Amino acid sequence: MSLTALALNCTLKPSPADSSCDLLLKQTLAALQEQGAQGELLRVVDYNIKPGVTSDEGDGDDWPMIRQKMLAADILILGTPVWLGHPSSLCQRVLERLDALLSETDDQGRMLSYGKVAGVAVVGNEDGAHHIVAQVYQGLNDVGFTLPANSCTYWVGEAMGSIDFKDLPATPDKVVQTTRVLAQNCVHLARLLKQQQYPAQK
């Protein structure tokens, strides 16, 4: 079964700056490809995502293009760095724009995100990955995405340290394993949901 994935990198660094979140998302897309899902990576900061909670905030808003790609994909991976113990402001912006899905439904009354699977990737030099995953999981679930078991991957360095994920000599084995599990479980659940969608919402 052919599957597609979209990864959104919510780093604050515009292209072509190196980004640890970009590296982890590329590794995640490679793991998804090994499972049979072809993916695309977008860096959110490179686009004009206007503030708001609708699907189209008017002239110059790039969100409708990203939204179209997201709704065409079977799997969404949302990646964010840790900033002051929280997801980046761009990650929050994406979640706010996804709020529109609460009122957008198909002819069966289901949110347009029903049947789509989501995962989360987090990088940073301080603790807080689990806290951020919990926040992003809840937001994605609220707007209709389905979260498989263990559908997150992350790396956090030593507290008050100066080494970034992208500067490590090699990706730690545990991160590789966690990313592989995310990919396996996302693809498995996406295949099941393509075969049997959620029931009509009455």
From TrEMBL:
Residue stretches making up the NADPH-dependent FMN reductase-like domain: 8-155
Molecular function GO labels: oxidoreductase activity, acting on NAD(P)H, quinone or similar compound as acceptor
Keyword presence, Transcription: no
InterPro entries in UniProt: Flavoprotein-like_sf (IPR029039), FMN_Rdtase-like_dom (IPR005025)
Keyword line: Flavoprotein, FMN
The organism's place on the tree of life at top rank: Bacteria
Protein name: Flavodoxin family protein
Source organism of this protein record: Halopseudomonas bauzanensis
Organism classification: Bacteria, Pseudomonadati, Pseudomonadota, Gammaproteobacteria, Pseudomonadales
